[in-house]
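Narrative of activities, Objective 1.

The group set out to show that a structural description can be obtained from nothing but a protein's sequence at a throughput compatible with the screening campaign. Below is one input-output pair from the validation batch, recorded exactly as produced.
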Amino acid sequence: MDVAIVDRLQFSFTVMFHYLFPITTMGLAPFVAWYTIRAWRTRDPELTRAATFWTKLFAVNFAIGVVSGIPMEFQFGTNWAAFSAKAGGVIGQPLAMEGIYAFFFESIFLGALLYARGTTPGGLQAIASVAVWLGSWLSGYFIVVTDAWMQHPVGYTVLPNGRIEMSSLVAVLTSPFALWQFLHVLCAAMVAGGFVVAGIGAFYLLAKREEPLGKRFVTGGVAVALAFSMLTIFPTGDRNSADITKYQPVKLAAMEGLFETTNGAPLAIIGMPDTKSATLIDPILVPDVLSFLAYGNFNADVKGLKAYATELWPPVELTYYSYHIMVGLGTIFIAVAGIAALLLLWGRRLFATRPVLWLLMLMMPFPYIANEAGWMTTEVGRQPWIIYGLMKTNEAVSPNVVTGETLFTLIGFCGMYFVLGVLFIYLVIREIALGPGGHVPSAHEAEQPA
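Output recorded for this entry:
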């Protein structure tokens, strides 16, 4: 097996596992700040318990995210030395800023929140909660800036020896490609946070525990999930797709399974791409819509995959299916959150509508699947480039690392991350079982009428 493929498998595994936790911290941080500020202003003990509860869940995600993210930093040197040597002068800047400015900022104020947990929040705790919120989002921004530069490099010069040097840090940090990509990622993280809060609230209502807080969680979670599900599609998803259309048209063709250049290109709802026959099998198509979405003109030409050399094609099937999973789930999120919101507005019937509460609770894993599918679309669709138009992935590997070494360490990562995953699940289930009240209800308590 080619060492570049194994290196990619290892990095994909570590980054996809790690990414589960930044999604949650970015999505939960506003809720931590909201409940902390509300508890400070109202002196309400119930809101104090809510603030403590979400702070502890945030801290568990933050801790596992830190541990699972450390190996990726080393992989740039161990597995991708050629890439680091060529582009380290650019990607090192935002990554260093993430560690120095965002990570430490977030860590310090999270420590302050944890130190004072369980007490009625004061003004300093309220400030700390907002700082944690801003730190988590700022950290996400620096990471997305790094990836966006690899998707659409700006603010650089290529030296005579082939090394890439940063010519403008401002251009890298303010790239329009990075801005819309970050906003899309942020909205997707907020969808995950909204459904987690609503799902845990639904669990408490179904279990007839913590019902006042359960109602607060469901209300706030549904509102956030609905708003950001729509924002994920428009404008952030639309503008991010416009950048892909402009700068990575071959990725667009793979995402849509479009092989032939077409005037008035249709939008594929479903279908099965077959690269051997260069066709989309059994498609359901909406005529002309892809042309409109891509160029604002129902009759515009959209280039198909055949317009490009096959060695420039990304893995078509994986790009196509991951994109359609993301879009399909995004549509479902709007429908589920919309139904829940209507029941809330209609005499607050949601709290007594058990099927919808069950649906909200069972929806919690799916935003994570959608987020992972979105990143697969972004990263797999960029292939064969590691830096789009500048460096191919098979040129980026370390010259002195062999396949067996990478496979061995991949097995080690699988074992280590399995243990981390089990520990995370145990801690989260334990905190949810304890609840904001801090105790597991006895059998007698559980039998009491609501």
